[in-house]
Amino acid sequence: MVEKSCSPQAEPIWKLVFDLFKKVGNEFVEIVHVSFKAEAPVEIQGVETIAADGVPRKSARVFRNKVFPIAKGLEKRQPTAEEKVALRGGMSEAAVTAVEV
What is the per-residue pLDDT across 51-93, written as a single tens digit (0 to 9) for each? Predict the structure, then answer.
């Protein structure tokens, strides 16, 4: 998911959100929420591209190979410092990859 908000100075703030759900009975329950705030210009451009055009195949691979495995392991616990760095790196790479398509 892409979120856009505004800073107090009316500057856009772009975020990529990765939510992982698990089916429990007949319902899907959110088990992990990862929010990435784009900061570098290329990250911002990548998130804007994803918002406009959807997730490109290369970015989807980054989510699948670098974000999902870590997120899946976080059910019922907080991430370690290393996992936070890896998640941020994966989300950043997914955004940047969207520009490189």
Answer: 999 999 999 999 999 999 999 999 888 999 999 999 999 999 9
pTM over 0.70: yes
- Contact assessment for residue 12 and residue 62, using Cβ atoms and an 8 Å cutoff: no
pLDDT over threshold 80, residue 36: yes
Q: What is the pLDDT of residue 65?
A: 97
Report CA 45 to chain centroid distance, whole Å: 14
Single-letter code of the amino acid located at 11? E
State how far Cα 28 lies from the chain centre. 19
* Tally of helices (H runs) and strands (E runs) in the chain: 4, 3
Report how far residue 46's alpha carbon sits from residue 2's, in angstroms, rounded to the nearest whole number: 11
Are the C-beta atoms of 66 and 86 separated by less than 8 Å?
Answer: yes
